[in-house]
Design a protein that fits this description.
Blueprint (H helix, E strand, L loop, with lengths): L2 H7 L2 E7 L3 H9 L1 H7 L6 E7 L6 E7 L5 E12 L3 E9 L9 E9 L4 E8 L4 H22 L3
Antiparallel strand pairs: 1-7, 2-3, 3-4, 4-5, 5-6, 6-7
Length: about 150
């Protein structure tokens, strides 16, 4: 397989236009009390979320998956440019003790006036299966997020 093609296939790009201000959207991504309410796929139950939102700061969240087991996701913030961009590492630890290889997530927030365009790039997947699995999780998670940030 062509290396350039392989690297593209092992990246995930998702874009959402949200009916919320950029400040509101960025706050929901960086306030652990808010993220704890939305940061999990729809079929999972968010359990906890910790965030030290600064370069070098750690984030960690736990969620219960449909089979009842608990998965931990965590990483380190590499870049925080409020309210424009977050870059962080991403690791998944499973209940059986297995750990996925570290990947990288970049989330950008583009001001569209009364809306915000959120663009998520998740890269450095080692396998296509991992990329596809994360795509399903992120799509579901962003559905939950879009509902969460709607104005009251």
């Amino acid at each position: 397989m062509d290396t350039a093609l392989q690297s593209v296939q092992q990246e995930l790009f998702l874009t959402r236009d949200l009916k919320a201000s950029r400040d509101r959207v960025f706050a929901a991504w960086t306030d652990p009390r808010q993220a704890e309410l939305w940061w999990a796929p729809r079929d999972c139950t968010p359990l906890s979320c910790e965030m030290d939102v600064r370069p070098g700061g750690i984030w960690r969240r736990r969620m219960r998956v449909p089979d009842g087991t608990v998965i931990t996701k965590h990483g380190i913030y590499r870049e925080v440019m409020a309210p424009e961009r977050l870059i962080f590492t991403y690791v998944t630890e499973y209940a059986d003790g297995s750990v996925d290889p570290e990947t990288l997530v970049t989330v950008t927030f583009t001001d569209l006036g009364d809306r915000t365009r959120l663009t998520l790039r998740h890269s450095a997947f080692r396998t296509e299966a991992s990329r596809v699995g994360h795509e399903g999780g992120w799509v579901s998670c962003l559905d939950r997020f879009a509902a969460f940030v709607l104005p009251a």
